[in-house]
Amino acid sequence: MRECRRSLPRGRFDRVSAFNDIRDYVAIPRVLSLRLSPDGSKLISTVQSLNPDGKSYGTALWAVPLDGEPYRLTRSAKGESAAVFTASGDVLFTSARPDPTVKDAGEEVPALWLLPRAGGEARQVATRPGGIGGVRTAGDVVVFVSDVLDGEESAEEEKRKARKEAGISAILHEGYPVRYWDHDLGPGRPRLFAARLGADRLEDVRDLTPDAGDALREGGFELTPDGATVITTWRVYLPKGEWRTELVAIDVATGERRVLLADEAHDFTGPLAISPDGTKLACARDRITGLDVSARSELWIADLATGEGRAYLPDLFPSDVDWAPDSSAVYVAADFQGRRPVFRVPLDGEPARLTEDDASYLGLNPSPDGRWVYALRSAVNLAPAPARIDAATGEIADLPSPAPRPEVPGTLTEVTATADDGTPIRGWLALPEGASAANPAPFVLFIHGGPLGSWNDWQWRWQSWILAQHGYAVLMPDPCMSTGYGQEMIDRGWGNWGPRTQADLDAIVDAALARDDIDSERVAAMGGSFGGYMANWLAGHTDRYKAIVTHASLWNLDQFSGTTDAAMYWQREFGLPGGERYSLLSPHNALDRITTPMLVIHGDKDYRVPIGEALRLWWDLRRTEVDAKFLYFPDENHWILKPGNIIAWYETVLAFLGQHVLGQEWKRPDSVA
């Protein structure tokens, strides 16, 4: 076992303590994004904060000058997002705020607004009956995505009004899928529109993809620097509910479309970035999986004229990418050994790691002069905030942030172990203040979701430091199928979820429990999504844990695989329903061995892991008389997002752990009384 007690450098901003009361925690503002202005003088960020009613979150745009303090740019009840700069430095953003220049504007859907660089009030520049989503701009060209009902575009508004007045919510599907994560698909379908910036509003608005159908579902797009071409993902639907994703190039002037990147064995997806000279595209190439073909993602750089390209960083899953201003290299953020560093990848030459700290980076923004890369910097113990990276040396400087960073209540330690097959397993251990040999801390194993993922970043939803504040040591390991450890780490667990992952978890839990500052008798396990699957698996395959918390978890794999929002993806790994892997790997088959008390948590609007998994698990636990509780959220999805529900989540988890791990008397939390 190895310890690493390096502290991440602190920035030039005040810190706040917000873990004593979960109500204080949910009120912390959160920095979500970062964009650099064309002249490189300032950044703009979307910040999420608690609304005045305390029942919901809202968003606003903040400016982060490179030579001053952050200041707020927008304010409205509906919030603002999707901010991009125009060539002249104005800011385009989307918001469902009402237009003050229009009386009785009708139903509010996200419209496109422009905030002048010189200051003054934002004005609405475009609206669509189905709202406006993502936006890109180059020169005076603007491309945006909007939801459109089938049929004549001129009748769009009337058709939506007629459906509403008739009380029709039904959606007739003739293909797959029908849902995605937390929302229903249809009846409208996304299309791309092109326009030009006018004096007051967008002009010459044109539908670039009238024949798109469902091809633009859950996709991404970028605009070439000259505004002449849109590069977008394009979903190709195949027999038996399958699909693959290609990249196509669309001429903005004519709407003519050509396939740029397509491969029967791969999907081409985001992140997307077009070189400043307009000649090349960087994207992700994802291998289409199968029973014996594991997931693999690599950075792919292709020529925009010919489509010819090749792979870079083949063992790392790219999370974000942007180009150096001279188009000679790309900057890539990718998971690596429990961090997410920035790599510089030259077109001709060897990739090099640019950031050497323990942090994770997203929102890459190289400066126009090539000297700096601006990004959001975070870590398991560090909330996201803007930072500046020296492009030559990798030196890092934190910038003033629109939101204060909370001070974590403890220390972060790196733990390593060796699995039974000789593979190194590592993870982060959050230790509460005061943990020592004389005062060993109770222990919680926290298993990440995915299964492709890594504990390498700050978590607003799965916050281990709240547990640390209440005295628990929290282990966040990266077992098999974790990203950032090479392809072999993913291959080890492919099609062998439960047994292989448990062996990895056992090894690193053994190493953590050998510490004299951890109480090896008072231990619990918890996880969400795939982590919830593993929590269920552990419940039926070991009795070492005093309590298990399972959130949004997979219980009956055969049932799950046909009701999730992307059944085809899971069928590739597990085979046709009823196959051998379902019976070997489904946690429900070990129900008769479960004796550990369990807390089941699920949201009814979860379409990735449908509520049927929790309902079946809860009934199975009741009929076999396992000591269990069910925390049910009728209005939440895969994640618990409403402030009041977040409080209920943590209070219930802490009360459950307190009862079974600490030996406290059960007290129903006030938030769910």
Describe the structure.
It is globular and about 70 Å long. Helix 5 crosses helix 6 and helix 7 runs antiparallel to helix 8. It is an alpha+beta fold and 673 residues long. 48% of the residues are buried. A hairpin with a 5-residue loop joins strand 19 and strand 20. The chain has an 8-stranded mixed beta sheet, sandwiched between helices. Strands 2, 3, 4, 5 and 6 form a 5-stranded antiparallel beta sheet that branches. A 4-stranded antiparallel beta sheet has the order 7-8-9-10, with no helix packed on it. It is 16% helix and 35% strand. Keywords: Hydrolase. Pfam families: Peptidase_S9. It comes from Nonomuraea composti. This is S9 family peptidase.
Structural topology:
Elements: E1 15-16, H1 22-26, E2 30-31, E3 35-36, E4 42-50, E5 57-65, E6 71-72, E7 81-85, E8 91-95, E9 111-115, E10 123-126, E11 135-138, E12 141-148, H2 156-165, E13 179-180, E14 183-184, E15 189-197, E16 202-207, E17 221-223, E18 229-237, E19 243-251, E20 257-261, E21 266-274, E22 280-287, E23 297-303, E24 309-312, E25 318-323, E26 329-334, E27 342-346, E28 352-353, E29 360-366, E30 372-379, E31 382-390, E32 396-398, E33 405-406, E34 410-418, E35 424-432, E36 441-447, H3 464-469, E37 473-478, H4 487-493, H5 497-513, E38 518-528, H6 530-541, E39 547-551, H7 557-563, H8 567-574, H9 580-585, E40 598-603, H10 612-623, E41 628-633, H11 643-660
Parallel strand pairs: 1-33, 36-37, 36-38, 38-39, 39-40, 40-41
Antiparallel strand pairs: 2-4, 3-4, 4-5, 5-6, 7-8, 8-9, 9-10, 11-12, 12-15, 13-14, 15-16, 17-18, 18-19, 19-20, 21-22, 22-23, 23-24, 25-26, 26-27, 27-28, 29-30, 30-31, 31-32, 34-35, 35-37
